[in-house]
Structures
1.
Amino acid sequence: MLPGAPDPPGWRRRWGRQPGPGLWCPSLLLLLAVLLGCIEAQTGPGSGGEPELNVYMSEEEVRRLIGLDAELYYIRNDIINHRALSFNLIIPTETSSLHFSWHSKSKVEYKLGFHVDNPLAMDMPQTNISLQGDVPRSLSVFRVDLFCSGKMETEIMLVMQLNITISSAKNITVLNFKRRKMCYRIDPVNVAPTTSTRVFYISVGVCCAVIFLVAIILAVLHLHSMKRVELDDSMSDSGSSQGLSQPSTQTTQYLRADTPNNATPVTNATGEQGTSGAGTARNLNGYPTLRIEKNDLKSVTLQEAKAKVKDIAISRERVTLKDVLQEGTFGRIFHGILVDEKDPSKEKPMFVKTVKDQASEAQITMMLTESCKLRGLHHRNLLPIGHVCIEDGEKPMVLLPFMNWGNLKLFLRQCKLVEANNPQAISQQDLVHMAIQIACGMSYLARREVIHKDLAARNCVIDESLQVKITDNALSRDLFPMDYHCLGDNENRPVRWMSLESLVNKEFSSAGDVWAFGVTLWELMTLGQTPYVDIDPFEMAAYLKDGYRIAQPINCPDELFAVMACCWALDPEERPKFQQLVQCLTEFHSALGAYV
Ligand SMILES: *[C@@H]1O[C@H](CO)[C@@H](O)[C@H](O)[C@H]1NC(C)=O
Ligand SMILES: *[C@@H]1O[C@H](CO)[C@@H](O)[C@H](O)[C@H]1NC(C)=O
Ligand SMILES: *[C@@H]1O[C@H](CO)[C@@H](O)[C@H](O)[C@H]1NC(C)=O
């Protein structure tokens, strides 16, 4: 069954039990292309008839690359499927070889060549057939192996050119097969000498175990030498790498070796991020997929939280508060003005997050801590903390650069109200463009191994040019109380945005962020509705486990719903990566531009 097949509105569908949506959005566009291609083939101009040449991707290959159960013919009985050829297929990150099936009844000569647009990032592809010869008379398969050099992180455009000469006609047909593949930079430390992923993971596991043992031994030695007997309470699970690695700077460096130099590691006041190196594994393409961390809301005191942001503290004098943009029970967001330090005539608009008088110390601490989630990161689709005011006796303030249309969720809801009178208020293409920007920002976070844990429309902001930025979730619990639920423990969680593994096992990874992205995409398409609104938050886990998901919004194209559905695969490994989501949505965006 196709993932995008429309359901009557209001119906819910089951997903989890399917063999798995490794398939996703291009499949539908492609299928369309194939079907059109077939029609063309049946009604097209008469074929020469003689050679009966066929070149195609087998069902197995199509399933591997696109997730559809179908054969994809490029040439069927001499007729070229131009639509299939024009499709610029994205090769999944974990795939590094392509297979083509072909045969011909009579003599057909071929020449094979490759072009790679960035030879630095990808070496010349290799095939297991010669680059020139005759198309085999019996059904055969040839393989094309792709090698990312690991020196650069970029998307590669790859063209396989197949020149066909039917010997009787002495007439060359040039076929170009276009492919795209994301290549990642591989850190020399993490390169495994084998191509087997399993062996790689095992060796990573062994390495981690060794590091852990060394860390323990060093810690024990250190503790002995210090004649200290007490161990820190927090030395369990994810706290351990932090607690144990301190005695040896060497260990600390090793655990952090894969942090790219050009990015400041996130200094999160709770120590949530960037410390659990032992949980980090990379696949062969260097994309972090297995980074899983347990939620570790270690208690931080207000003084500690303030100390962490001291370096970005500014004087309260420089900030003027104007209108209140949002207000909760203890928190508020103002539109504020920041005066330039050197030239007081220069002013910059800011968002100012602050608390009311009745806010507890814990709530203030949480605001400061959560504000630091994206600190030190630079990307056009991220809005990290700018400054703080933490002078004694004043309510602490957090300042972020201003985006004049404000909170994305509130903006979407506004659009919904306006839409009733003016259906053209915001186009589907605009919404998809917003989704692309969010995916871009998230892709950057994933590459930096930062897990957001609370991606949702409420944690994004937008300006008049429809630029969208992802921000932290400080105060969101207070400003959007309906979006957070307490499931018996003392923690308020965005239950409706969470993947099953985060809900049940408190496991957080980029794949969990992908899940939340799917929900965010749904929010965009529904103009800010609440997902799973009729499901009791306590039932969510069981509901997801049974394979139920949110229904396809009315007016949401099948292709887009297919993208969401893939983000909600039960198995985190089956969900698309943010980079793939960017590509796929971009493709869809341009298709909307072309046909609408
Ligand atoms: C295919 O033919 C075109 C045009 O004749 C030529 O430019 C190209 O180099 C050929 N490609 C291969 C792989 O031989
Ligand atoms: C090329 O490799 C494919 C798959 O690995 C195999 O099925 C095929 O027989 C090989 N072809 C030749 C000519 O070795
Ligand atoms: C190649 O062959 C086709 C028909 O088989 C013909 O229409 C076309 O003009 C030929 N092209 C050249 C360059 O000879």
2.
Amino acid sequence: MHRLTPYVPGEQRADKNIVKLNTNENPYPPSERVLAAVANVEGQALRRYPTPESDALREAIGAYHDVPADHVFVGNGSDEILALSFQAFFRGRGAVQFPVPSYSFYPVYCGLYEVEARSLALDDDFCLALDGFKVSGDAQAGGIIFPNPNAPTGRAVALDAIEALARQHAGVVLVDEAYADFGAESAIALCRRCPNVMVSRTFSKGRSLAGLRLGYAIANPELIDGLRRVKNSFNSYPVDVLAEAAGIASLKDEDAYRDAVARIIATRTGFSQALEARGYSVLQSAANFVFARPPEGNAADLAGRLAEAGILVRHWSTPGIDEWLRISIGTDEDMQRLLSAIDSVSSI
Ligand SMILES: *Cc1c(COP(=O)(O)O)cnc(C)c1O
């Protein structure tokens, strides 16, 4: 046990006056219709266990993405789906390849499931070149996982590059689309053509439901069956009755979802320009955050000063990205407060 190195999530604080731009939560709450769906769940429904495979929710997700329900798996957040995937597809089959920097849960799962981690460095400008993944020799049996768009950089890769990789690789290619709502081309359509492609998605970011814990995977039924076997060897009911109701309501409330996403994208554009005007380097983002380097590269110091001013952003002291900050996109007002704080701490 003491050999495990767990994931460290961004800080959560109870103080409501904090401007929280450190965990990529959606700044807009879910719509009234989603809240009403939770409120309308009857006591009789809570008395019973949920349906083990969340059939109604899987039907709704399948209809939304135009895939059959047997191509859909749901879980308690997409992190759970990633964990089940490591166990179902990656454990005992050779090294797993993923980009670095990227989502820091991947090496944690490698530790948990005792899978060798093989990292692919990003280009100097933080682009992910998918043709850098190894697809021959002993790499063939292993898995490949990457977020699209990538975190913490926000950069997206094109769908044809994903398809080319999936066609060359024998093992499972898992595309983590936690942020795809905000700009990347989805690989969901690929799941019909390439039996080794799995896409994981979440209700946490674009759909404003991080507190609900709901994620899903789309892939061909054979891979879905692999996830189901692992899940049913561990927990028959990872998705509760309230989450199923809210998830279905969210998928039906397309206008509210699109509206919030459009607002975040507009805020992202304005905020990126405002940082650039202050001499920051800002990567082009397809996500609900930006990755930015202050002109002096003093990211750690700046993050500390901003926290003192009640504004949380994310900083890693990992070499290569230690001069950068990942800043979630909040409301226009949140970003204005951040810019004012940046201006006042920078003039000290
Ligand atoms: C947020 C995030 C997830 C996890 O989402 P949950 O559904 O909340 O567990 C997975 N992958 C990446 C890259 C993320 O940023």
3.
Amino acid sequence: MLKRVDYITDLEWNRFLDFSQDLETPCIVINPYTVKRNYIQLRDLFPYAQIYYAVKANPDPAVLTLLANMGSSFDVASRYELDIVLALGIEPDRISYGNTIKKAKDIAYFYEKGVRMFATDSKEDLRHIAANAPASCIYVRLLVENSTTADWPLSRKFGCHPDMAYELIIMARDLGLTPYGLSFHVGSQQRDIGQWDEAITRTKYLFSALEEDEDIKLAMINMGGGFPAPYREAANTLSDYATEIKRYLIDDFGDELPHIVLEPGRSLVGNSGILISEVVQISRKNNTALNRWVYLDVGKFNGLIETLDESIKYPIVTSKDMPGAKEAEVILAGPTCDSMDILYEKYKYRLPVDLKTGERIYFLSAGAYTASYAAVGFNGFPPIKTYIMPWDT
Ligand SMILES: *Cc1c(COP(=O)(O)O)cnc(C)c1O
């Protein structure tokens, strides 16, 4: 049986149960104190880095406000996210436009609002930036291969080959922009710390080549996100990541580190949220079938999109978990009329055999990429609601 206390303390769990008992399911309950604790831990482990929270992971205004008050900056991917962040009074010089896929008119919108920090990975985008955000700081995103070791890879679609990055930096200068640095993202929930080593080495190679051949001195490395949240599959501690990454940086850059930026999403908010679901129905496909199908009121379209390919395996707790409770394998599925809406079939969760329809199932570590990733109303099911649990911090 999963040990719930490996993920959340008894105190926090009991406070959560009290707070949530009358809430209608499905919903997500966020404990802001956990976000605060995660932020402090990251800041203390990477004291030399500036943190840009990746807003897409959880754009709830309470989460953004808390992080803003802690001193975080923000990585924003669309004008809609920008509006949310600015509406909270966050200054534009704490915001970067980190999406390499953008319309020229959206670049103009960011510029008009005061944002001066833009990511790019293509010539066309760079020309759009030069035309609509003159003299702004540019960082070029490098392609990194991470499809096998990250649980939620971000490869292929973003970034460019180092040769192209080199050209883009020169082109940025020639277009009157400020070539500021390089970025990469080693893949979300990246459980192989060694992936940062290779990526950092690439940045070093480009820093040196650009300085020697073009007299361009880049100032910044944006190391993206990728740090883990605690799910079913084991990951190293954040402290291990910090130690190793520091070593890679010093190996390549010595004591004079460039300005380092981190863009965490999942690791800051993942374990702050619990998704509460109710069992809608339990059935077997024939009388002798070994596995029960457990259908929930939450699925791929209203919060659990990251179960695609069973990529993210949430720790699941039920209201019937007791030491010694008899458990059996189940197939877990969502409520919609789409057969893609199966959560876990290959990976067999074991749930108590006396779990009944109408009872609750809790997905732990569901604070990242859940509420922000839900359909507007597929099959009429509304997007999942978020509640912020009061917790004096
Ligand atoms: C999604 C994203 C992040 C956050 O990644 P996590 O793995 O959730 O920490 C950071 N930077 C960029 C550019 C992203 O697209």
4.
Amino acid sequence: MTTTPQLLSADDQLRLDQFLDQARAEAHRYLGYPAAKDLDYQLLQACLGLPLNNIGDPFAVGTWKVDSHSFEREVLAFFAGLLRAPADAWWGYVTNGGTEGNLYGLYLARELYPNGIVYFSQDTHYSVSKNVHFLNMRHIMIRSQGNGEIDYEDLNETLKIHRDVPPIIFANIGTTMTEAKDDISRIQTMMKQLAIPNYYIHSDAALAGAIAPFLDPRPPFDFADGADSISISGHKFLGSPIPCGIVLARKAHVDRIARSIAYIGNLDTTVTGSRNGLTPLILWQKIKSLGIDGLRQRVEQSLALTAHAEQRLRSAGIAVWRNPGAITLVFPSPSQALIERWQLASSQGISHMILVPGIDMDQVDQFIDELVAETAKENC
Ligand SMILES: *Cc1c(COP(=O)(O)O)cnc(C)c1O
């Protein structure tokens, strides 16, 4: 293969260097977004000289061969095990992120129950109302409890009114603001009590999907617990320099939508045509280098750092709280200056910090020192 050098002028190179310096500083400092920072993908340098494209179904063989489908399949099998998918009865692919996985889960649900109603809570990620709009699905928003979890009473009452239509439950396994987890066991008990035989459950586990399997008690959210499909973001707890995600579903749901495409000699089972060939390699490197034990350790380290920060904030008299098993700490919003400096996601008077891998204790302590100093100034 020949390569064409792509040289930049001195000005353009300077602009790029300044951008990198600033982006590195901001990436080092942020505390309010769920993207893990412990990235090391030198290995992938070599892949950037290839037009990798994972077009088509990762489990089928197509005419195009410059793909990383075999790595993608290993990544999917790993997560199928972690999320207790039924042996030989699951399917999935590496997506562009949590939103695409959620769109996919809702799409499968709609093909199964074309007149179904989607139920999701007020705390559901902002992309979901867009997704149900894309898919033209009937939907009802359910109240949330104070901690961000769905209000089961409200859900029960609403389901009762629409018992003739199959419910499609869009469950949050870690809400965006407070990392609250809806209990899908409890929701299924509700279905039994209401004698609703046909329903679909999608778990939106964007952040917590890589954490929840290691929690004790393990929250009910995966296939063994009754989910029909699950979406996880790859660039959140796992960490990836390129946004990506994993979607897994019960295979029977996917078989309903598969169409064979002559042009690529493959099945059209994914949302987009061309798909990222690098991200499966990134995820593969992550799971291979860490293994199950390494992933568990990352969870334990994040929980330990979260407990440390919570303890420090509480001793400083700050009204901090978190959901069980969460690495997200919720507290009253500080000044706009601190919100900007530490990139704290904020909404309706509350802010959060998310103690993802790659954040170190010094940084956390520095932020808390600044927050405490500011609070002390306000109080005098
Ligand atoms: C981040 C997030 C999403 C969207 O994931 P992307 O990877 O950003 O597309 C969906 N749901 C929840 C709960 C999230 O936190």
